[in-house]
## 1
Amino acid sequence: MVTYEVFLKKDGRDEFRHAGALDAANDELALVLARESYARRAEGDRLWVVRREHVIVADDEFVSPNADKPHRHHDGSAVAARRKSLREQGS
Amino acid sequence: MIEVSPGIRSYLLSIADDKHFVGQQHAEWIGVAPFLEEDLAFCSIGQDELGHAALIYELLVGDDDLAIDALAFGRSLDEYRSCWFVEQTYTEWSESLVRHWMFDTADALRWADLGQSSIAELAAIAARVEREEVFHRLHADNLLDALLLDAESSAILRSAASRLAPFALGMFDPVQEEAEAVAEGVVSRPFSESLEAWKQLAEHRFGPLLWGNPPDQAHRTKRSIEFRALLGRMREVIEIDLHAVW
C-alpha cells in the first residue's frame, strides 16, 4: 500500500486545500478512494492525490528561524507612533 | 410518478429490488471492511445503489417518503422481486468484492437496454445511473486488478467467484412479466440475451468458472432462506415504533 495526500478545490477562486490522507494500492485506486472518502458529498469539484513520498519536506531547523523575526511583521504601529509623535512635536 | 400495468410494475420492481438489496449488503460493511478507505468507498457505492433503487420506487409511488418506505420495506415476502444473488449475506470480504464486480458488470448491461425506454423517466434514470456506475466499475476493476496480482489473494477471489457463479446466474432470471416490458418498449430486449456476453466477461476476469445451475427462485417470486433475516435487519429501527414520526 502507498500513502497519498489528498487535496481538494472548490469551484471558484478558492485554492486547493489539504483534505487528508489515505492508503491505496495504486494511483488509480487512490483517486477512486479519495473521491469516495473526501469528496463524497461534493466537498470539492477538483481533486489531486500526491504520493506522500513525492512531497519534499523541509527540516524543522530550516523553517523555524523565521519564527523569530519580528521585523518582518509589518503591522505599521511603529511607523504610526513615530508619525504621531512628529505631528505632536510640530503643533 | 407513472401509471403502469401490474406487469410493468413487477418488472420495474425487479430492477429496483436488486439495487436495494445489493446496496444494503454493501452498506453492511461499514466499519468492518478490510481498511478504512475501502470501508468508506464500498459503503458509498452501496449508498448509490440504494439511491438508484429509490429513484425507481419513487417512479412507482411518487415522492412521498412514507409511500416509498412502504414499497421498499413493507411488502410481504412474496411481493419482492429480487434475485437470490443479492439476498445472500456474505461475511467474507472476497465474496462481497466478487459480487460487487459481478453485479455491476451485469447491471451495466441491463441498464444499457433501458436507455431508450418508452418510459422517458426511466430512460433519464438510466442515464443518471450510468454516470455513477462508471465509478463503481472503476473501483471494482482496479481493486481486483491489484489483488489478482497476488497469488494468495487471487486463489481466494477465484474460489469465491466459483462459489458465487450459480447464484449470479439468477440475476438473468427475469420476472415473468419481462416479455410485456419488452413488448411495450420499456426495455429493448430480454436480459437473458446479455447472459453469454456477461459470462465471457466474468471468465475473462476470474478464469474458468463452475457455473452450475441458477437457484430455483421461480422468476423471482420465491425468496431465499436468507431474505427474512436481511429484511429484518433493514426493518430493525422502523419496527421499534411503527407509528413514529421522524
Note: The interface with chain A takes residues 35-38, 40-41, 44-45, 135, 138-139, 142-143, 146-147 of chain B (CB under 8 Å).
## 2
Amino acid sequence: MEQKDYIKDISEIRSIMERSSKFISLSGMSGVFMGLFALAGIGAAYVYLDNGLSLNDEDITRKGSYSKAVTFLVVDAILVIVLALSAAIFFTTRRATQEGITIWDRTAQRLVLNISIPLAAAGIFCLALLYHGFIGLIAPAMLVFYGLALLHASKYTVNQVRYLGIGEIIIGLVASFFISHGLLFWALGFGVLHIMYGIIMYVKYEKK
Amino acid sequence: MKDFISRLNKAFESRVRLGIMSVLMVNDEVDFNTLKETLNISDGNIASHISALEKAGYVHVEKRFIGKKPNTSYSVTKSGKKAFHDHLDALEKLISHK
C-alpha cells in the first residue's frame, strides 16, 4: 500500500518536471498543415519558374525576369510562412484548450524565443546569399539552419523535434551538393518531413 | 526497510512540497503565479509550504518590484538540491528493495 504511494510520488515528480520545463502541447496536426502549405508554396514556385521564367526568352531582359522571379518567390515564401504559422498556432491552441493547459506560459515563451534566434540568423544569412547572388545555396542553407534551430529548440519541447531537426540537417547537407534541385529538397524537407512528423505525433499522442 | 524510510526527508513529505521542489529543480527561477498554475493549487496552500521549505533552507525567496507590481520569485538552494536528490534516491531504494 505504502509502496504504491511512493511510486505515485515519483511519477508525479517526473510529470511536473517535464510539464514545467518543456512545452509539450505542440500539435501533430500543425506539422501536417505546415508541410501541406510548404508543398503548395513550392508547387506554385515550380509552376512559376517553369512557365514564367525562361532565361533564354529574348522578349524579357534577363535582369527584368530575374527580379520578377525573386519578388514572386519572396511573396510566395512569406505567404507560406504566415499560413504555416497560423496553422501551428491554431492546432496547438486547440489541443491545449482540449487538455485544459495554459498555452502562452513560460515554457511556450522559452520555446518561441529559442527557435526565433537561430531562425532570424538564418533569414538574414539567406538575404545575404540572395544579395551576393548565391541563389543555389539558399535552399540548402535554409534547410540546414532550420534543422539546427529545431535541434536547439528540442530541449524546450517534445523530444521528437530533435529527430525532425536531424532529418532537416541531412536533407540540407545533401541539397548543398545538388544545388540545381533546390525546390525538390525543399519539398522533401519542409513538406514531406513535416507531414511525416505530424502524422507520427498525431497518431502517437492525440488520436483517441 | 526501516533504514530506508528514515532516510526519507520529512520536509518533503507533503505532495505539494514535492511538487514545488520538482518545479524549482528544472527552472532557474519561478514566480508565484507560474508555480500556482503548474501545480494547480491555492495561494495560501503554496505560501505555507514555501515558507516551510524556506525555513529548512531549501528554497530561496526573492521579493522585488517589476514596475509597481510586487513580484516574488523562488529558486532552489544548493542544500535544497542535495536534499531533494537524496530524497529521490531514498524513494528509489525503497521501491527496488520492496
Note: The radius of gyration of chain A is 20 Å.
